């Protein structure tokens, strides 16, 4: 029988995955629309295609990667906030992230 913490952990994993995928989909649609408005062309379907200019391929990769990554991160953070508000603690996956400055090793000189 699975413990409550195990089932909560699985629930958070599913919730954060769904949130990240949804955010990436919305970000991609908005990005495609913005790209068309800014350039007058559709975004490159495959930036590795030699028919796509190198500058356009690099710009598309940088902009799309950044915006989709940020959207996914924000959605996952929102899912963690919802989980913490519902359960009173962070998901187990986030409890040991090593970001607590009080526990960081002292700098060596």
TrEMBL record:
Source organism superkingdom: Bacteria
Q: Decide whether keyword Transmembrane helix is in the record.
A: yes
The alphabetical list of record keywords is: Membrane, Transmembrane, Transmembrane helix
Q: Where is this region: Disordered?
A: 85-109
Positions of transmembrane segments: 57-75
The entry's protein name is DUF4235 domain-containing protein
């Amino acid at each position: 029988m699975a413990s409550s913490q195990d089932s909560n952990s699985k629930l958070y994993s599913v919730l954060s995955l769904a949130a990240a995928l949804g955010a990436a989909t919305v970000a991609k649609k908005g990005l495609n629309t913005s790209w068309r408005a800014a350039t007058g062309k559709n975004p490159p379907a495959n930036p590795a295609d030699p028919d796509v200019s190198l500058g356009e391929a690099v710009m598309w990769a940088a902009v799309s990667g950044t915006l989709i990554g940020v959207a996914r991160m924000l959605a996952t953070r929102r899912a963690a906030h919802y989980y913490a508000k519902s359960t009173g603690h962070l998901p187990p996956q986030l409890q040991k992230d090593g970001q607590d400055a009080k526990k960081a090793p002292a700098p060596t000189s």
